[in-house]
Amino acid sequence: MNIDPSIVLGAIVLLLILVVAGISFYLFNRLEEIKQLKAANEKFIRSFNDLDEQARLIVKTDLELNKAQEELEKRLQGLNTLQKFSRELSKTLDAKEVFQKINPAMLTDLGFSRGIVLSYDEHKALRPRMNIGFPDDRLVNIISQINRDEHFKTALKDGHTFSSINSSKQTKEKIIQLFATEHFILTPIPAQNNMDGMLFVGNRYTSPAVTEGDEELISILANQIGQSLENTQLFEQVFRSSQMLESKVKERTKELESALEKVKLISKQKSEFISSVSHELRTPLTSIKGYASILIAGKIGEVPPAVKERLAKINTHSDNLVKMINDLLDIARIESGRAEMKYLAQSIKPLIDNIADLLTPQLKDRDLNLQVDLPDNLPDVCIDRNHVERIFINLVGNALKFTPAKGTITIAAQPNSDTDTITFSIADTGIGIPEDDLEKLFEEFYRVDNEINQSVKGTGLGLSLVKQITEAHGGNVWVTSKVGTGTTFFFTLPTSMEAATKSSAKKET
Ligand code: ADP
Is 260 inside a domain boundary? Predict the structure, then answer.
């Protein structure tokens, strides 16, 4: 069978077309697959890159974390060291000790191997106070260079901290050259209004660089040193002024003691003088009085009345003078402790009644009323009766003198069990005493300048005697008064032997 070749050809062509189409289809499919694979591959590479990036980030973060942790640990250790240092500083009030506490171990704990503290002395000269790791000649050179560098000193005074991480290249090089230290911090030690000095710390070039944390720590350290120095200065000031005060007090006490001795001596001499003069006066006075009496009595012959009258005046004046001399003698004797006091426990009432009786005629004459106002069960007083009588006579006598007619004089008493004393008061409704005169009233011969005193004679010794007798009994005397209203004198007397002899014991010491 003959097959038409065109058919065969057609078949072959068709077959070929089919094969080509099949191959094309296959190839097309493969190509699609390759494309997909490529896309998947690219995606994979992208994810891989992402992962790689993340891994790098993690490593970087980890490194940074480690670094931060290291820094944190360093800071913690630094703070710990500062805390210990602060505790040590609080134990001292001596500037030298403050500097001694900055030692190599402490610097090492803060991460430094070298350090210098410079501070100003009282002449404003910069002095080395602490030096770790610097030879002496370099230290001298450092101080002289800093002294010369005004710009540098001003910056420090303004509170600027220089460090190898914050300084300009030029400054950094200058400091490195000066201290021969590559990693450094130089900070001022602040004082209240100024700068006390400066603190330098550093490491040689092989060590790790300083950090901002280090700067902070060293600034805190410098502040602590400044604060401590201020405390020591304050303490020194207080200590010095208290010592000065103490020595001044001692000096003044000595002066006062010697002044007191002098006063005692003068007072003794005064008493002795009064005593001897009074004795000398008493004898001729007694003779004068005696002769006057003989003449008045007409024992030598009849004397005319006019002469008699003069003689009577001589007699009265002599009596007054004798009384004055006796008072003076008593004051001098009691003041010098030479008067013998016979203290006896007794009731005061009979003594006061006796005085009232004694003064009754005068009270009547002057139309005055005397009230005795003593509480029941008044304790006994421990007194020398004769002397205490004179207190009452003088005070009631004065009240009589200075109270106008129809007035009242009141004697009252108030026991004080806590001091074993009785406070007596003698009050009148008289002319009163001006305030300015009150404090001088108990001085010898002091008399207030008033109308009554101009006409009535007096010595100004009565109150002085009252004071001496009261004090000899361990008591006090004081007065309150209002002009035109009246005066009250108060005095205390003892109710026990111990209270009575209080002042004699004082005199003996
Ligand atoms: P003299 O009575 O002899 O003057 P005193 O020492 O007893 O001396 O008294 C001193 C002065 O105190 C008196 O001169 C008088 O001025 C004043 N004085 C004393 N007691 C009273 C009184 N009760 N009222 C007013 N003045 C008084």
Answer: no
Q: Are residues 394 and 329 part of one domain?
A: no
Tens digit of each residue's pLDDT (9 = 90 or more) over 355-375? 999 999 999 999 999 999 999
Query: Element (H or E) spanning 201, and its range?
Result: strand 195-203
| Structure confidence at residue 504 as a pLDDT band (50, 70, 90) | low
* Same structural domain, 328 and 363: no
Q: Residue 503 has what pLDDT?
A: 58
- Distance in Å, CA 394 to ligand 1 centroid: 9
E-assigned strand segments in 285-441: 344-346, 369-373, 381-383, 408-416, 421-428
Give per-residue pLDDT as tens, 243-295.
999 999 999 999 999 999 999 888 788 778 877 887 788 888 888 888 888 88
Residue 233 is assigned to a structural domain of this protein = yes
Are 236 and 118 contained in the same domain? Answer: yes
Residue 430 CB–ligand 1 contact under 6 Å: yes
- Ligand 1 atom at minimum distance from 489 CA: 23
Of 207, 240, 273, which closes a domain?
Answer: 240
Q: Clarify whether residues 291 and 387 are in a common domain.
A: no
DSSP 479: E
Q: Is the CB of 467 under 6 A from ligand 1?
A: no
Supply the range of the domain harboring residue 96.
89-240
CA of residue 462 to ligand 1 center, whole Å: 8
CA of 430 to the centre of ligand 1 (A): 11
Q: How far is the CA of 360 from the centre of ligand 1 (A)?
A: 20
Centroid of ligand 1 to alpha carbon of 460 (angstroms): 7
pLDDT digits (tens, 9 = 90+) for 407-448: 999 999 999 989 999 999 999 999 999 999 999 999 988 999
* pTM of the full structure: 0.54
Both tokens assigned to 276: 């001897």
Query: What does the pLDDT average to over 229-254?
Result: 92
**Do 309 and 381 belong together in one domain?**
no
For 89, 344, 442, 496, the CA distances from 422, given in Å and listed in that order, are 62, 15, 21, 10
Q: Is the CB of 441 under 6 A from ligand 1?
A: yes
**pLDDT tens digit string along 140-153?**
999 999 999 888 88
Answer yes or no: is the C-beta of 402 below 6 A from any ligand 1 atom: yes
Residue 254 falls inside a structural domain: no
**Does the CB atom of residue 407 touch ligand 1 within 6 A?**
no
Q: Is 469 helix (H, G, I), strand (E, B) or coil?
A: helix
**Do 296 and 379 belong together in one domain?**
no
Choose one of 463, 470, 488 to mutate for the ligand 1 pocket test, by most ligand atoms within 8 angstroms of C-beta. Answer: 463
Q: How far is CA 77 from the centre of its chain?
A: 41
Q: How many domains is the chain partitioned into structurally?
A: 3
Atom of ligand 1 nearest to the CA of 432: 25
Does one domain contain both 329 and 345?
Answer: no
Average the pLDDT over 303-331 and give the result.
85
Q: How does residue 509 score in pLDDT terms, banded at 50, 70 and 90?
A: very low
Residue 323 shares a structural domain with residue 396: no
- Whether residue 250 lies inside any domain: the answer is no
Q: What tokens appear for 325 in the block?
A: 């001399």
Ligand 1 and 459: CB distance under 6 A: yes
CA distances to 64, 87, 219, 388 from 81, rounded to whole Å, are 25, 10, 14, 80
d(CA 143, CA 129): 12
